[in-house]
């Protein structure tokens, strides 16, 4: 340790630019990680404002606040912004900060490419959000951009296509970087099967990204040429097939949902052992299950298309395959529970979010299996039931894991403890308002309320009002998170190197805040 | 562990198949994992996994064909 430290002090004198240039030209994994996380948070608030506008409109039946065209633009952009702008960059931010520190590497493998991956994102976000101001407005056919609508829309759609291209390139470069870092830069003695689970889940996620992002790029490129260069890939009038788009899109789309949940599994698998003060139960099972989930996630895509017209053999195949994949996912839930079993648990904010994750993600998994049953899905497809399902896995799944991870590592990043009381408030408020918002949407969906519609029949009024109140509560609670983070950056109790007494991974051997350059001399791993 | 490396190709194949099967289920005994980790290469496991996925697909197709 001492050796590492001396080294860092020597390097504190090397000249790196300050001010804006520090961030623009940075090749430091910690700086880039910070930028990813702030970018993600800004996009989270942007997408959140859209969501609240949607919920304000749905507070009562009838059209009060926005016109239907704009409402559709909001639902579309809310989805795109949250997926590509908030959730995915947040996980890449975690990877930047944590992967090198957790495997004992000094930085990412391709430091300059890392800078480029990040700085591609702001222009992509500007294109995406700028589409609101294009003639005809932003795309309004849903985040899944199905033709024929996506072929017919104004140039906002082209801007979105370019934004997706750019973000895809950024993701692919980020993934190559992560894969190379993990495979080549581990400290001596850090064998693959000694890697922290967060590193494992990111390794597998990165492979998935490299596999499916080009598929999405292909799909949107075909859309682009259909729109502008007279091809007819998806235009039935010209001999094309709009359903083919759905197949290509979901061949990307289902692995994509796992891309958003596997790193969350990784974060939770770091938090639970720390606060239960026990090693992760079934580490090896977790690694194996994650890998097989990744492979199998590529053969279930058509469960999103049961009502698009499909032979019954196809429906049965995708129904069986989907339900079977829930098995390794379920095993993970058992592993986390077994890790807590008889542990000496404490309930700091990261642990609260991790337990909230397990509880609510499981609920989302169950509603997923319900959607996977063809006869039921024919009823609930395109209703609020699906909305409830995927918000349980994405908000109380991916997002809760992100919050948990942020609280878990903030002391390491800033050198200060966050305000535990406010952190707990943030958790309980999020927990309460999240369920208030989304639990009732199950009922709305089962009762037949369609998604992506600005008006609804009177019988849906009560639940919608409850849901809207919940949404505003949830949205406001997130400002508390912003406050806690800012407060933590500016000061607070000094964090020790270990921070949490149960933390066993390498980052806890570094001082807090982690020095700008860490592990320039690789640590020794027993 | 040295002996494992020299085991019969048949035994090796079986070990890969077992590792992949348990991985699909999501459970693996620690002792079995240790012997996997020391005697199987990542390439073997990945190829095994892809073959496993193909078999999984074919089995499901077969089941679906039978029931419809
Ligand atoms: C137990 C595992 C899961 C199963 C069985 C499952 C099943 C399904 C099914 C059948 C649908 C289609 C419903 C319909 O459109 O009628 C669906 C939609 C969706 N799922 Fe899941 N799911 C699971 C886990 C997840 C996870 C982990 C995520 C993300 C982190 C996720 C995100 C989504 C999203 C975003 C949609 C909606 C896509 C859209 O139409 O906009 N799911 N799920
Ligand atoms: Cu899916």
From TrEMBL, chain A:
It is found in: Cell membrane; Membrane. Its main location: membrane. Its EC number is 7.1.1.9. It comes from the Bacteria. The keyword DNA repair does not apply. Keywords: Cell membrane, Copper, Electron transport, Heme, Iron, Membrane, Metal-binding, Respiratory chain, Translocase, Transmembrane, Transmembrane helix, Transport. The chain crosses the membrane at residues 36-56, 76-97, 118-141, 161-185, 197-224, 244-268, 280-302, 308-331, 352-376, 388-410, 422-444, 464-486. It is a multi-pass membrane protein. One of its GO terms (molecular function) is metal ion binding. One of its GO terms (biological process) is electron transport coupled proton transport. InterPro entries: Cyt_c_oxase-like_su1_dom, Cyt_c_oxase-like_su1_sf, Cyt_C_Oxase_1, Cyt_c_Oxase_su1_BS, Cyt_c_oxase_su1_dom, Cyt_c_oxidase_su1_bac. Cytochrome c oxidase is the component of the respiratory chain that catalyzes the reduction of oxygen to water. Subunits 1-3 form the functional core of the enzyme complex. CO I is the catalytic subunit of the enzyme. Electrons originating in cytochrome c are transferred via the copper A center of subunit 2 and heme A of subunit 1 to the bimetallic center formed by heme A3 and copper B. Belongs to the heme-copper respiratory oxidase family. This is Cytochrome c oxidase subunit 1. It comes from Nitrosospira multiformis. The lineage of its organism: Bacteria, Pseudomonadati, Pseudomonadota, Betaproteobacteria, Nitrosomonadales.
UniProtKB/TrEMBL annotation, chain B:
The keyword Membrane applies. It comes from Nitrosospira multiformis. InterPro entries: DUF2970. The lineage of its organism: Bacteria, Pseudomonadati, Pseudomonadota, Betaproteobacteria, Nitrosomonadales. It comes from the Bacteria. Keywords: Membrane, Transmembrane, Transmembrane helix. This is DUF2970 family protein. The chain crosses the membrane at residues 45-67. It holds the Pfam family DUF2970.
